[in-house]
Amino acid sequence: MKIVEVLNQDKVTLSFEVFPPKKMDDYTKVEEAAHQIASLHPDFMSITYGAGGGTSQYTVDLARDLYQRTGTEVIAHLTCVTSTREHVSHMIQSFKQAGIENIMALRGDIPKDGKVAHDYSYAYQLIREIKEHGDFCIGGACYPEGHVECEHKKDDILHLKQKVEAGCDFLTTQMFFDNNVLYNFLYRIREAGIQVPILAGIMPITNKKQLSRSVQMSGTQVPERFKAIVDHFGDDPQAMKQAGIIYASEQIIDLIANGIKHIHVYSMNKPDVAAAIQNNLSGILK
Ligand code: FAD
User: I need a surface site. Which of 33, 152, 165, 222 has the fewest CB within 10 A?
Assistant: First the structure.
């Protein structure tokens, strides 16, 4: 089933994200975690794409496995900036053969050494190409606080519009910790004429290190209220985990109360965190 059909049903959706292992030794562990998350019956699951080496095959393997063995609808991620056209074409064929109908089309980060493959510069080029390969439902990324490389938010929104016009069926946001940032962003993109469904990306922060790593990579602002939580509970792993789950759950409740229909949780291969969040929303997700 195409994700966009799931999103167009008149209900609040909850989806979870997993990432594939970097090496074969860890595959079984990741697969088990992904199956546990699938057993929560989310509306769908996404499987991220590690741009380097053999890890791209694990995205196909994990997505196929989840789809065929658990019946969970999946969306497989694909990045392009470090890939050749041949490799992208091979990946799209692999998704097709696995019965995967949904692809999250991303540019990918520019590697620190600057080594890119020069076949693609931006995600919209990948989106156009996926469309040429068949009838896929295509998702794209968006950045409520602006993408780190883009100096002016106005330009970022123009680029986003170009991406949607290239064939994006929906957009998933980068994590954010202040819901007002999302409400403001939604106002601006709707005004710019971007009408596709938006999935609010929520990252439950369950340890102190994870916060600094995530913020460093994404440039996401941390509100004072959340800083105080991390300052107070950060050195107590159990307390930090619980506080992080509660903070994420409260964010989601506020989003739903304000009319946001699609919640995507960056569950980071943690079934217990995914389950706790789902449990906190059990009376709300109807
Ligand atoms: P683009 O949409 O191409 O945008 C990248 C930058 O280029 C932006 O600054 C944009 O404003 C600018 N730009 C776009 N078009 C133009 C244009 N025509 N002219 C000039 N500038 C332009 N990374 C992974 O490696 N694997 C994953 O699985 C993965 N999943 C992700 C999922 C989500 C929901 C998100 C938010 C991010 C994900 N990422 C992933 C990270 C992503 O690859 C990076 O954020 C990357 O830097 C940008 O990717 P993009 O697809 O948003 O790029």
Answer: 152
